[in-house]
Amino acid sequence: MNSERDSETTFEEDSQPNDEVVPYSDDETEDELEDQGPAVEPEQNRVNREAEEQREPPRKDCTWQVKANDRSFHEQPHFMNTKFFCIKESKYANNAIKTYKYNAFSFLPMNLFEQFKRAANFYFLILLILQAIPQISTLAWYTTLFPLLVVLGITAMKDLVDDVARHKMDNEINNRTCEVIKDGRFKVTKWKEIQVGDIIRLKKNDFIPADILLLSSSEPNSLCYVETAELDGETNLKFKMALEITHQYLQRENALTTFDGFIECEEPNNRLDKFTGTLFWRNTSFPLDADKILLRGCVIRNTDFCHGMVIFAGADTKIMKNSGKTRFKRTKIDYLMNYMVYTIFVVLILVSAGLAIGHAYWEAQIGNNSWYLYDGEDYTPSYRGFLNFWGYIIILNTMVPISLYVSVEVIRLGQSYFINWDLQITTTLNEQLGQIHYIFSDKTGTLTQNIMTFKKCCINGQIYGDHRDASQNNHSKIEPVDFSWNMFADGKLAFYDHYLIEQIHSGKESEVRQFFFLLAVCHTVMVDRIDGQLNYQAASPDEGALVSAARNFGFAFLARTQNTITISELGTERTYDVLAILDFNSDRKRMSIIVRTPEGNIRLYCKGADTVIYERLHQMSPTKQETQDALDIFASETLRTLCLCYKEIEEKEYEEWNKKFMAASIASTNRDEALDKVYEEIEKDLILLGATAIEDKLQDGVPETISKLAKADIKIWVLTGDKKETAENIGFACELLTEDTTICYGEDINALLHTRMENQRNRGGVYAKFAPPVHEPFFPSCENRALIITGSWLNEILLEKKTKRSKILKLKFPRTEEERRMRTQSKRRLEARKEQRQKNFVDLACECSAVICCRVTPKQKAMVVDLVKRYKKAITLAIGDGANDVNMIKTAHIGVGISGQEGMQAVMSSDYSFAQFRYLQRLLLVHGRWSYIRMCKFLRYFFYKNFAFTLVHFWYSFFNGYSAQTAYEDWFITLYNVLYSSLPVLLMGLLDQDVSDKLSLRFPGLYVVGQRDLLFNYKKFFVSLVHGILTSMILFFIPLGAYLQTVGQDGEAPSDYQSFAVTIASALIITVNFQIGLDTSYWTFVNAFSIFGSIALYFGIMFDFHSAGIHVLFPSAFQFTGTASNALRQPYIWLTIILTVAVCLLPVVAIRFLSMTIWPSESDKCPSLKAKHVPKAAFLQNSKFMASLA
Questions:
Q1: Binding residue per annotation — 221?
Q2: Ligand-binding site membership of 442 (annotated)
Q3: Residue numbers annotated as active site
Q4: pLDDT digits (tens, 9 = 90+) for 986-1042
Q5: What phi, psi does 82 have (nearest 5°)?
Q6: Long-range contacts formed by 796-799: CB under 8 A, 24+ apart
Q7: Which of 74, 152, 374, 709 is 20 to 30 A from 882 (CA-CA)?
Q8: What is the pTM (predicted TM-score) of this model?
């Protein structure tokens, strides 16, 4: 066993999870977690490794080559790619963009091709072809062509409007102009003519036409301010800075004309925040990073002009690389609807086959023996049955609703407009909003406001921020600190600890001034002056709050250049040389800056998360425990914390480190990893100064919203990167947790899951696939429990911990078959154990009323959502406001973006967006519920009316020798779904409400019908099918019985085929339109007009089509001349129609009355709901309509 275990990749089991540590980076690999200790490498492994290294030389990261002012360079043969056969094109894209799909010649064929890829459209195209075969079809070709053209036309018009808009946008963008060096000087050039390597000049407020390297600008040190709103939604300005050498030598036009720099960089990609490259010029290489690149889509601000060199153009730019296709989300009802359409296909084939067999039998018994039925064709009965099979496929084709998908899209579009008018939202997943089981929410900016306020701090172990005077005496009521002594104070900070101001002024503790100096110097904030006042532009609200706090306490950040930063220290202006900036990123969780003081001393200042800072402190650093205690206090008050520290650096130490830093900066491979390694060397033995605490308040209405969603049986999980104590206290603040809640933590859950796994193994093993599932609850059902788990414990429990390789390296080449089999079995056992463990965790977590996951990474957020989707088959919704929530938002069935302080990445990746969390209750409990009910009613009625219409042919076939003759006039079949029955059902799908919006919010329990799929499922589908079958029987057999052996009042027999068809059609139209009246809960004038208007439209068109005038014009197409006027003047016919309609509808009225009385729905159970809260006029309208039907 030992040898097998040593030879495999094993889980780390030698360390307990740390609640304070954010798990490994999402991008970390197994290789980065290998043991660094010495290991003895077997000889064979060494040979294998050396052979592989010789076979695969190290890949060079920077393979994109750009030469300035030399277009011919990029047209060399080795830069050409074969596009089609011998046609070649340059790998460098031109700058014209193309987002449209069609042109004038390709629109019709391409659009039709795309539409006929849909199964329903292709099915009706095949039907149309079959109808052109005389031996098969008894139905006119236009009965299928007209509805198909309507459906294709509506879709094509929508696609055309969208594509015309894209054409206009492309033309507008491609024809914008900027100045490009041509023939030795700047000339105005269209964007589409720009090429890689061109030198361009941009002016203030210009859009950037391509991804360019900043060479110089009008600002000091060639700074350039850009707005990235179109790129990431953030409106705050960011600054870019040119290389010092290009700033120095490339300011004038003649210098730019002769510039011949050569750039090697990464291939085009979609990473907006990363760039790796090197500029070769004047026999020297210079490192390039994202801070020197201006991206297409940004706008030049506060900079008179700048010059740049095009690196990526057109489709190669990062913004275009990010415009890939978004995964299309489909609702649960979509999938169910598709399966039901497939079911209808099967029913259609079976019914057609049965009737075809009947026709073959009838032909053999009767048809061949009846000379008057001879049609001149000597076909066998079986062949005639085969032809009739296709004939019935055509006749009964309306069982498959051609207009269903278009109608659904129209309803969703209309519902989206209604939601948009209410909440500024537009999408097509509306009915899925009425079926949500689980909500996964970010904390910062989603539950909270993400507007940061400096509240407290800990300096040298002393906590500041309480209400106390300058003598350290606490007061319950005290005036806020007066900052009028500070000329740079912004007057926005409310701070009540006068003792801190006393400490700053006295200077008794140097750490206090050092603390605020660090806040003023260690950041990436930009500053400009508006009307003489300092205006800060921060990349994050946290950083802005800290720099503003330092400003108010007397340490104001005034200006920065490429190599310096200027600070006002209690009124004294001092400038510091910036030697290096060690950037913040999600892996490092910290930022550092190295500066040289005016006195010549070198210092490193660092701020970051407490977990990463404490790992790097000097062993003798003072006040570590006191600061940790303060951090715990701040976390219990739901404040966000950062630790501050510094380090004195010797000149010699800095020079040695700077050489490594410069070498890593220009590395052509693995530059980020090399820089991180160099950063680690200098960021150690730090001295702790203290910690900051900033407040992020809850948004308005969060507790009320969570309470209502809980009453709707929606469970809310909070996924955040904050500390456990902060997350727990936010849980209490938003009433997700209460005093009665029993909280379980990671270690408790781990023990429970371990016990459950042992029990499952003892019952037959985790791997016994055929053992019957046994559902055992983890907790007693009566208890209110919540789960709080950290990212480290999450990885431990889900067996997602990063794996490390064993000290004995694995062989590269295949081993024996037995070893390969053992390895495969072992891997399967591990995967099965992991899957069972994850399923158990989901079962356990779903028994809790609330779940809070803290210290989790973006990847873990998405993983938790995916686990619930996978094992609970539940509809999920994820809501967040930042870039770290994008993965979670895309993973959930429905993603909601909060447009807040962290840019628009979450909004741009979401299905819905709004400004505050509290709008979620209206989105789900009102619009989601309405949309679900409307869509379910629409689908049930749509299937019913099509079954009632189509199956009349089925009953008629028993009386016409199964000959596939139609029971209706051809034009009635053509217009039934398009005109006679379409508008009322569409309006019901758009406007119907079972209760008002106020009642929907007042009774959240009404929401459960969507979660339980009560209104549309296979049971409801078969109810609609049976209802349609019974209606079709009544529609056929009552008129049939009435027509047998009858004489009209004029002495003539009305029982001809055409009069019979008119009677059935008239009864059908009245029945299905009155039926939707019974299904309508919320009556408006529009609904009533559509119902009675559809009936009137039917009679109007029928009388026109049966007139002599239209028969004279089109004798072959209109053959029911005079039928309507002759038949409908007979009172007997009207009595037949009225009887048929009454028999169809009265049982429905009776059944619904009984069901409301005996089996009331959730809305029926609400006391006095209709009488008290439904608008009186609407209630009276509904009552009168019901009375008129009775």
A1: no
A2: yes
A3: 442
A4: 888 888 888 888 888 888 888 888 888 888 888 998 999 999 999 999 999 999 988
A5: -75, 120
A6: 796/16, 796/17, 796/746, 796/750, 797/746, 797/749, 797/750, 797/753, 797/837, 797/841, 798/834, 798/837, 798/838, 798/841, 798/863, 798/867, 799/11, 799/830, 799/833, 799/834, 799/837, 799/838
A7: 709
A8: 0.73
